[in-house]
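Structure tokens please, single chain.
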Amino acid sequence: MKFKDKQTEQKLRGGYYTPQYLADYITKWILEKNPLTILEPSCGDGRFIQSLFNNNCNGDKKITCFELIDSEAEKSKNLLDTLGFNNFSVHNDDFLKWATRNLQDDIIKFDSIIGNPPFIRYQYLDKEFQDSSKSVFDLLNLKFTKHTNSWVSFLISSLSLLKDNGRLGMIIPSEILNVIHAQSLRNFISGGMYKVLIINPKNIWFENTLQGALILLIEKVKNEDEKGIAILNVENDYFIEVAPSELFLKSNYRSFDTLSEKWIGTNLDESELRIINDIKNHELVYKFSDIASVEVGIVTGANDFFLVNDEVVNKYKLDSFVHPMFGKSQHCKGIIYDYDQHLENKKNNLPTNFIYLDHELESLPLSVKNYIKEGENADYHKRYKCRIRKPWYKVPSVYSTHIGMLKRCHEAPRLILNKLEAYTTDTAYRIKSNRFNDITLVCCFLNPFTMILSELNGRFYGGGVLELVPSEIRNLYIPIDENIQFDIEEMNTLIKEGKIEEVIENNGKIIFEGLGFPKEYNIMLMSMWRKLKDNRLRR
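Here you go.
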């Protein structure tokens, strides 16, 4: 759980300011159609206003701006006035509330819309703005989740206010391509009359953050055959040397129908997607949900209290109440968690002990009572998951499985053979194979086809970290050849040495040839996986 009071001011206000040259580029594109009316739904200190001036925008154009922060709104007013714009309004108001009212009445729409909407998580918004964010979804009959970031609501509202033949240019988080909370937005765009160009950079545009962002250029078109989406992956900022109209005109568009719900698949061409579907249809390629179950690990509500190193165990005499556990990549760098790995973690002073207290307070030794008291002094018992339990220190759903999987990874996801039957927290998953041998499932998982699907189904965050939630894991497919005798110990050693790509390539060669696929399939699959992975890692 990420608590609001521990977040930076930048995160709470979503203040990632657009580099001026990017704002200029976006604005140049929208001005090419000579719009009469322009909307900036979150004008901040006026970057896009400055861009209008830098692109010689006529001072008589009707410019409508919104900004919630008083001081920023005042800056924008002064800037518009200073730059010689004489037909403008800056509303120090909630844009989403205004947009909802306006959409209900269907009074005002705009020729062009520009901006950089705030990147604020739903849980960090004040109640009033949470309601505003949700109201847009309700009005348009779109599915809303409480994970929805504010920029999603801003973009949906803005698109709804765009006139036919109008243009929208914005900088938004790169998570638009794959996060679940943006699915309603992707459905809204793909179901509408939109032609979409995404300029996706390898570099990070915002200083002092890992927040990945991209440029979104959208034109509202009249005909179905004009619709489509293109992604232009760019290195550095060389695309700036090409006119935005040329980029938009000459990009390779494809139908929304050729994509899955997530748009990361636009990085693959149609022949590559056909290979994926070809493999999916093989009788020995199984959907994960058909051969295994996936459950979230133990939810403690206070990992700092329940996961401890040996020093804490010894200090409070917790020996009788602790069990081995893993939950982070540093706990298990390979695909086997056994006593040797556990011992290595202990030597490195990692929190490898899970405290399980299944007793009433009165029956516990004094030293354990003292530890519980220390937890209460630190207010652990007041945390949501803890305070709804009686007693707060008794964690429910405590069990282990023979296979585990870390929630997040850097290079590639992997299943872990849990030989020690260690517990896992909610930073990992508990997996039960219901059809194949545990070792077979763990080893077969590491192949380029399943890695590709992991990239397409998962989402990634700052720094390129890949995350898969249970529903996305269940949608993966795994080719399984029970005739293969895997050397899991050797694979484990190679992976711990940082050679997981080598393991995946070797496994793919053996598995796919064994299933009767052409030899070149594995080569093509490795190329596809590297392309997707490199895009995620911005390499």
